Amino acid sequence: MPTPTPPAKPPSPLDKEQMHGLRSIREFLKVRTSYDVLPLSFRLIVLDTDLLIKKSLNILIQNSIVSAPLWDSHTSTFAGLLTATDYINVIQYYCQFPDEMSKLEHFRLSSLRDIEKAIGVSPLETVSVHPMRPLYEALRRMLKTKARRIPLIDVDDETGREMVVSVITQYRILKFIAVNNEHNTVLLKKPVKDVGLGTWSNLVTANMGTSVLQVVNRMVKSDISCVPIIDKHGRVLNVFEAVDIIPCIRGGAYDELSASVGDALCKRPDDSPGIYTCSPDDRLDSIFDTVRKSRVHRLIVVDDDNRLRGIISLSDILKYVLLYGEEDDNN
Ligand code: AMP
């Protein structure tokens, strides 16, 4: 994901205004903490690493969540975050070692690291942040490791042990920026295409008849979390997301991955947020308006005929907001 660089020509008044808006948002993120993002009351489901992988799927589905922090009760330590990527790894394991299907049934969450090793993927760096550190720091850490969510870990004063306070996502942070910074986001008036926000070429797509397994393989190969589903004219029909895998393999039904994406999308929960589109001429301020009002996880850029032009993920937006025009990438 390349960092967009500012144009070499002298900045126009629009450029200056945009840069002022971005800098003000960065200042805001430096004086807010991850605690500020948390709602007054929230629920946190932590899963024990002794739990069977198969059962973890049911728990996520029953509680309408797509990830959970893991807890090793043998050592009383935080053991990473369970996400859709872990299930994608399990699917890859199943494909590489089909004879081990019966073993897969008995795998526990503690086996996830062994599965990573067996299929040869490098383990995701488990980043975490103290909830009282600046939000800017949490975001920089997320962008550096490509994490879409970050656990907030504190230490219990009495026992001296780690405790998981909550998990914040890119979505929550972007919403927090949008809700609290309307006076700054209105300054972001340049069209998304002009600032190079998102990905506009080599887009990975599928059609309704593509199998779920093929789509998963495309996601793994390109390290992406969504694949737009298009018709033969390139018009966008839907988007298959990494989290759509979870209901597909409920109960350990790995052999059903040969079903089509069209069938898999019917298994989406009823409260699924749907897809959000924008045009190449839309400005970042209108995208922030959408984020403020809706549950947006990415925007699919389409032309007037609904044909796919690009993809703007939340990480693209956050990367732009944090890093555009920054000379020193490491500060
Ligand atoms: P995400 O996986 O959504 O966080 O996106 C990671 C990066 O991949 C971002 O720069 C996206 O713009 C890009 N991206 C996401 N989905 C696709 C896709 N289907 N084809 C090509 N690039 C993508």
Structure, described:
Residues 121-185, 199-256, 271-330 form the CBS domain. Pfam families: CBS (PF00571). This protein is an alpha/beta fold. Helix content is 37%, strand content 16%. The protein has 14 helices and ten strands. Helix 8 crosses helix 13 (284-293). The mean pLDDT is 91. Bound molecules: adenosine monophosphate.
Detail the topology: elements first, then pairings.
Blueprint: H1 13-30, H2 34-37, E1 47-48, H3 53-62, E2 68-72, E3 77-82, H4 84-96, H5 101-104, H6 112-119, H7 135-145, E4 149-155, E5 162-169, H8 170-180, H9 182-185, H10 212-222, E6 226-230, E7 236-241, H11 245-248, H12 261-265, E8 276-278, H13 284-293, E9 298-302, E10 308-313, H14 314-323
How would you concisely characterize the structure shown here?
With 331 residues, the chain is an alpha/beta fold. 37% of the residues lie in helices and 16% in strands. The structure holds adenosine monophosphate (AMP).
Number of domains: 2
How many strands, which pairing sense, and closed or not: the largest β-sheet? Answer: 3 strands, mixed
Order of helices and strands: HHEHEEHHHHEEHHHEEHHEHEEH
Oligomer: single chain
Percentage of residues in strands: 15-25%
CATH 4th-level superfamily of the largest domain: CBS-domain
Radius of gyration: 21 Å
- Backbone structural class: alpha/beta
Unreliable residue stretches: none
Order of strands across the main sheet: 1-2-3
